[in-house]
Amino acid sequence: MVNTNKLIRNYQGITGLKTGSTSVALFNLSASATRNDLSLIAVIMRAPTGQIRFNEAKRLLDYGFNNYSYKKLGNKGDTVKTVLVEKGVEDSVDAIFESDGGVLIKKGQEKSVTQEINIPDKVSTPIEQGQILGEVVFKLENQELARINVIAKKEIKKIGFFNNSSHMFEKWFNLMR
Fold first, then answer.
1. Residues 4-61: tens digit of each pLDDT
2. Which of 98, 102, 158, 173 is spaced 20 to 30 A from 56 at the CA atom?
3. Rounded distance between C-alpha atoms, residue 165 and residue 151, angstroms
4. CATH number of 75-176: 2.60.410.10, 3.30.365.10, 3.50.50.60, 3.40.47.10?
5. Could you tell me the pTM of the whole model?
6. Structural domain boundaries of the chain?
């Protein structure tokens, strides 16, 4: 396959994008690359030659990869905490990340990221699956980087007369084993 983006053949992690040139616009390039979960885009406009546009794009991408990294903060569905449930048919519910989270950060600062978990120790029923229970705030030197909602992994119904009877029978049966 023919491609006018020469970086495709010789730049580690290149994912492509678009070259172009006209007599007025000169030589242009949008180049994208990914390394270690970090994706960058370099845009070069009005370069005097085709080779200069590729060299400048390499310089921009190299700068980004040498100075920044992608810090994964959490994966959707990861359990953050198990929360006690009051008056529920179950005693606890897993509080999970609602979505994936990550940030662009200067290299060397990855270990300085702190997290503040804002989830109550107990929640009352009824609890809906996906109900927001709290959040996790990620910070670097007291500057907020990101917030990720923490949600209930599953539904927990409130104990009523009928499900209370079956709940008590189940607990009694487990004790008898």
1. 888 888 999 999 888 998 999 999 999 999 999 999 999 999 999 999 999 999 999 9
2. 102
3. 29
4. 2.60.410.10
5. 0.76
6. 7-68, 75-176
